[in-house]
Design goal:
Elements: H1 11-21, H2 24-33, E1 38-39, H3 40-47, H4 51-64, E2 67-71, E3 79-83, H5 85-98
Antiparallel strand pairs: 1-3, 2-3
Amino acid sequence: MLNYTSDTIDLNLISKIAKALGHPKRLAILDMLMQGVQCNCDIAAQLGLADNLISHHMRILEESGLVQSERDPQDRRWIYYSIDPETLAQVQETLIAFFDNARIQDRQSVCGPGGTCSTPR
């Protein structure tokens, strides 16, 4: 079993992923992409999103690194989206490490009456 500490967990990655996953439509898009490559029309048809909203959500997902896009070589208007498997693996590993029950430590607060904190907050 790997021993993770808060120093070895990429909190910036978790924050970026949390932002990307923080909208139900983006979660639905990722769910679709787990089934394979999708184009704008696939996403629009299944989720009932306008093109500008699809672009907005896809930009956030691409910035997170979870999603990659490729334009059709013959007609550049068509964009195909897919999950980036390397980023997905990194995210899985990072989230598993962050939420590992073994990281929970028994600690008592030193604040409160009789504690070492001098000012209540």
